[in-house]
């Protein structure tokens, strides 16, 4: 595992990464690349206070013993650009975490190349620019990749690792090894706009806004439905496994119906149409996941247990003894209390 790490950029993302690395028992130096003049130390003190605050939250959550907090903080240094030469030269990996402005990225990457070791991997945390674009700013693109942390970076486990065509496999391996060692979950994806999570969430968020615009439901009701019905299921299965769970034909027919009613944005993906044409339905064919027939019952039982665990953790799992008891007369009274003409089932 990389012994020391440098983070170029002392803003919110840089601070979050530093907290995650220090918590993960890695020595890290955060470099403020902006020329703040006499205000540098004031800014660095404020950044230190923010990092400390995020780690104190972990203490309150029971994730970090209060006695261990000083040791974690001691692993994290914050310096101005003029005092960063030694840390940059010693770093086994550098995260670039400057604002999402292309010219700022260009300047930062040029500075990192000039100050870090010649073979040191450089991981840009950008959520806006692909590694193929950033590779134009470095002399040795084989050591460059994207490592997209999700906010809040110190808490969220996922980091999307996106290598470019020139990125050396050893750089991908070293980056993923470091992330895993500090408790993160690296997922490698191609250099494609939006990576995985931002691309999916942009579609879902916009559709939620459209439902508010159309009067389908209010914001609170939509978000409640997402938390209870949408998020809990996909926290267990993920999207593609859920297709296999319910059947590719379910997605195909639902997509076509929604396309007819709401527009082409709901058209089924070409791969879904190909699977249907080939007679593969997912629920029994295992289109995206290969689950042997002999293990299918055990697999479903385990997933149901996983569902129950998630629902229980969010206070949504109801136990039999907790539900109110009704005799037949009371239940009939509840039903008969509906206004005349109101549907009994909704």
UniProtKB/TrEMBL annotation:
Subcellular location: Cytoplasm
GO molecular function (one): 3-hydroxybutyryl-CoA dehydrogenase activity
Keywords linked to the UniProt accession: Cytoplasm, NAD, Oxidoreductase, Phosphoprotein
Keyword Oxidoreductase: yes
The keyword Acyltransferase appears for this protein: no
Domain 3-hydroxyacyl-CoA dehydrogenase NAD binding: 4-190
Major enzyme class: oxidoreductase
Gene3D superfamilies (alphabetical): N-(1-d-carboxylethyl)-l-norvaline Dehydrogenase, domain 2 (1.10.1040.10), NAD(P)-binding Rossmann-like Domain (3.40.50.720)
Domain of life: Bacteria
InterPro entries in the record: 3-OHacyl-CoA_DH, 3-OHacyl-CoA_DH_NAD-bd, 3HC_DH_C, 6-PGluconate_DH-like_C_sf, 6PGD_dom2, NAD(P)-bd_dom_sf
Pathway(s) of this molecule: Lipid metabolism; butanoate metabolism
UniProt subunit comment: Homodimer.
Protein name: L-gulonate 3-dehydrogenase
Source species of the chain: Nocardia testacea
């Amino acid at each position: 595992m990389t012994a020391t790490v440098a983070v170029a950029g002392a803003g919110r993302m840089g601070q979050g990464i530093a907290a995650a690395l220090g918590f993960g028992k890695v020595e890290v130096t955060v470099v403020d690349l902006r020329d703040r003049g006499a205000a540098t130390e004031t800014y660095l003190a404020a950044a230190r206070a923010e990092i400390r605050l995020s780690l104190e939250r972990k203490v309150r959550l029971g994730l970090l013993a209060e006695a261990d907090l000083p040791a974690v903080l001691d692993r994290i240094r914050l310096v101005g650009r003029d005092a960063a030469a030694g840390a940059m030269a010693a770093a086994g990996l550098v995260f670039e975490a400057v604002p999402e402005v292309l010219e700022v990225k260009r300047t930062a990457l040029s500075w990192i190349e000039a100050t870090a070791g010649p073979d040191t991997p450089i991981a840009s945390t950008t959520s806006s620019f692909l590694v193929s674009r950033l590779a134009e700013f470095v002399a040795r693109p084989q050591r460059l990749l994207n490592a997209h942390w999700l906010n809040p970076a110190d808490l969220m486990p996922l980091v999307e690792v996106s290598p470019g065509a020139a990125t050396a496999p050893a750089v991908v391996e070293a980056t993923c090894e470091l992330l895993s060692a500090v408790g993160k979950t690296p997922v490698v994806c191609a250099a494609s706009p939006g990576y995985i999570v931002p691309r999916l969430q942009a579609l879902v968020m916009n559709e939620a806004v459209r439902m508010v615009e159309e009067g389908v439901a209010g914001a609170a009701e939509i978000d409640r439905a997402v938390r209870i019905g949408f998020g809990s299921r996909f926290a267990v299965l993920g999207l593609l496994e859920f297709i296999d769970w319910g059947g590719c034909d379910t997605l195909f027919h639902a997509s076509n119906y929604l396309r007819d009613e709401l527009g082409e944005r709901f058209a089924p993906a070409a791969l879904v149409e190909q699977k249907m044409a080939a007679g593969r339905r997912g629920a029994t064919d295992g289109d995206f996941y290969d689950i042997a027939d002999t293990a299918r019952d055990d697999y479903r039982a385990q997933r149901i247990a996983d569902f129950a665990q998630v629902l229980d953790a969010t206070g949504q799992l109801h136990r039999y003894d907790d539900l109110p008891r009704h005799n037949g007369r009371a239940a009939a009274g509840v039903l008969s209390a509906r206004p005349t003409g109101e549907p009994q089932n909704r």
